[in-house]
Amino acid sequence: MSNEILTQEQEKNYGKFPEVLNDNQISKYFTLDNLDLEFVHKRRGNANKFGVALQLTCVRFLGTFLRDLSEIPDIVKEFVADQLFIGNITILELYAKRETTKREHRALIKKQYNYREYTKGHLSFRWGMKPNGAKTYAKDGNVTKNRIIFL
Q1: Fewer CB within 10 Å, N- or C-terminus of the chain?
Q2: Residue 143, in any domain of the structure
Q3: Residue 122 domain flag
């Protein structure tokens, strides 16, 4: 039995967007629900709201935080911006002029969504659950409140 979690191909593409995102992926991972919007709107200024919303949705989709938000496809930026009533995605250039802001926002996301980092040897995971305690189901049908997001 192999100890590998990801195939070489998965490892190579980990934390990167695919060349093409379909509508199902965009709506599933990048739609902000009411709890997300409440969290996002606690940030000051549209650039910070937009940046934290992108970080939140990207960690859901990619399983990791992006260091460089310019790597996010414009279609994703536009989808998230529309939900925040932000008309111009170039406002992202104003987000987090200080690296500390991005780091603080990542910490706030981890706290809000109960993401915890787990490391054992060379394996790293981030565990999390929706703040409303929504249940998810494992392949065997057992109810679990946690989901794994790879770092």
Answers
A1: N
A2: no
A3: no
**Structural domain span for residue 45:** 8-114
* The dihedral formed by the CA atoms of 75, 22, 14 and 1, expressed in degrees to the nearest 10: 170
In a domain? residue 149: no
Domain count, the chain: 1
User: In the 3-class helix/strand/coil scheme, how is the chain assigned residue by residue?
Assistant: CCCCCCCHHHHHHCCCCCCCCCHHHHHHHHCCCHHHHHHHCCCCCHHHHHHHHHHHHHHHHHCCCCCCHHHCCHHHHHHHHHHCCCCCHHHHHHCCCCHHHHHHHHHHHHHHCCCEEEEECCEEEEEECCCCCCCEECCCCCEECCEEEEC
- Does 136 fall in a domain? no
* pLDDT tens over the chain, length 151 residues: 445 666 777 777 777 889 999 999 999 999 999 999 999 999 999 999 999 999 999 999 998 888 889 999 999 999 999 999 999 999 999 997 888 899 999 999 999 998 876 565 554 544 444 444 443 333 334 333 444 444 4
Gyration radius of the chain over CA positions: 16
